[in-house]
Write a structure and sequence with these properties.
The chain is mainly beta and 81 residues long. Helices cover 0% and strands 40% of the residues. Strand 3 (40-50) and strand 4 (53-61) form a beta hairpin.
C-alpha cells in the first residue's frame, strides 16, 4: 500500500482544476503548501495573458475549514428568532 504524502515545510503542490472555465472564473490550478514554520495554507493559480506572454497569478489563504463560522456570523443561542 502506498504511503500517505507528507508535505515538507517550504514547499507546495498545485493540481490542474478540471472544472475551471473562463466563464466560472475558478482557478486553473489549486493545491496546498506549508510555510517553513509548518503552517499550512491553500493555494490557487490562474493562467493569465500578459504583454510578455502567459504567466501564473497565485493566491494564498488559510486552509478551508467547513464547520468554522466567520466572525460576526456566530449564532446567539439565547435569541428566540
Amino acid at each position: 500500500m502506498a504511503e500517505q504524502f507528507e508535505q515538507r515545510p517550504g514547499s507546495g503542490i498545485l493540481f490542474k482544476n478540471k472544472t475551471a472555465t473562463d466563464e466560472n472564473k475558478q482557478p486553473n490550478y489549486t493545491g496546498t503548501g506549508k510555510l517553513l514554520d509548518g503552517t499550512a495554507f491553500d493555494m490557487a493559480g490562474w493562467v493569465k495573458q500578459g504583454k510578455a506572454g502567459n504567466f501564473l497569478s497565485l493566491a494564498f489563504k488559510a486552509p478551508f475549514e467547513p464547520n468554522k463560522t466567520k466572525p460576526g456570523n456566530a449564532i446567539d443561542e439565547s435569541d428566540p428568532f
